[in-house]
Amino acid sequence: MTENRPALIDAIGLGRMFNDGTKALDRVTLNIPTGSFTSIVGPSGCGKSTLLRMLAGLDIPTAGALDWPDGRPAEGETGFVFQEATLLPWANVWDNIYLPLRLAGRSREAVTDDVEAAIRLVGLDGFEQSYPRQLSGGMKMRTSVARALVTKPRMLLMDEPFAALDEITRLRLNDDLLRIFDVQQCTIIFVTHSVFEAVYLSQRVVVMSRRPGRVVAGHTIDLPWPRLPALRTSAEFGKICRAVSDDLEKYGS
After folding, report:
1. What distance, in Å, lies between the first and last C-alpha atoms of the chain?
2. Mind listing the pLDDT tens digit for each residue in 80-91?
3. pLDDT confidence of residue 1
4. 1-73+157-162+187-253, CATH topology level
5. Above 80 in pLDDT, residue 250?
6. Model confidence pTM above 0.90
7. How many helices (H) and strands (E) does the chain have?
8. C-beta separation of 130 from 180 below 8 A
9. Which parts of the chain fold into alpha helices (H)?
10. Domain spans, the chain
11. d(CA 113, CA 129)
12. What is the pLDDT of residues 210-239, one digit of tens each?
C-alpha cells in the first residue's frame, strides 16, 4: 500500500540527549512515505512524543539527521494535534480553528471558506459559536483536529489525541479520522498506546523499545481499505494485533 511511494521524510540515526543526561532516543531510523498513515507504539517514556516533536521541528536531535527528499515543508504545511485539545477558552469554535491562519496574517474574510470547510470536515456544523466550556471532550478534540487541518498541511502529527476519551467516542473519532485521511490525502503520523487503535487506523505500525527509544519492529497492516468497524472483530485483525503486542512485550518490558 505504501511500499512504492516516495519518502516525505527520512529519520536517519536520530538521537536525543537532554541536559540532565537522560537519553530519550537512540539511533532511530524511520522512513515515512508520502500520503501514508503510520502509527507509533511503545512503552511510556520511550520517546514517542519526543520523536514527534522533532519531526515537527519543535525539538532538535542531538544525533542523526532528518532528510526531506523533496524539501522541508514550509510554514503551515505541518499540523500538530496534542494530547490535550489546548483550545483558547475565551474563543469560540470558529475562532479557535481560525487561530493558525490569523497568526499567519490572513484576514477572516479571506479564510472564511477554509474555516467553514474544516468545521464541516470534522462534523462540527452548528457549533461554530460554541465555547470550549460548552463542548464535550470529543467535540473539543474535533476542534483541535480542525485547527490542525485548516492550513491544509502536507503532514499531520497526532500525539495520543484520543487517549482521554471514552471508548465509544474514541471509536467514532477513529472512523472520522480515516474519512478525513481519505479526503485530505495528507501524511499522518499517529502516536498511541493502543495496539488496537494503531492497527485499525494504520497502513504501518512502528514499534519502539523502552528508553532510550529505538525502532525495533515494523508491521505492514495488510487489511482491507477503507477500514470498516466490523474489521475490529475479524480474525485477521486479531492476529495482527497479537503480533504487534508480542513485539511490545518482547522489547518494551
Report:
1. 31
2. 999 999 999 999
3. 56
4. Rossmann fold (3.40.50)
5. yes
6. yes
7. 7, 9
8. no
9. 48-55, 93-103, 108-121, 137-149, 167-184, 195-201, 235-252
10. 1-73+157-162+187-253, 74-153
11. 16
12. 999 999 999 999 999 999 999 999 999 999
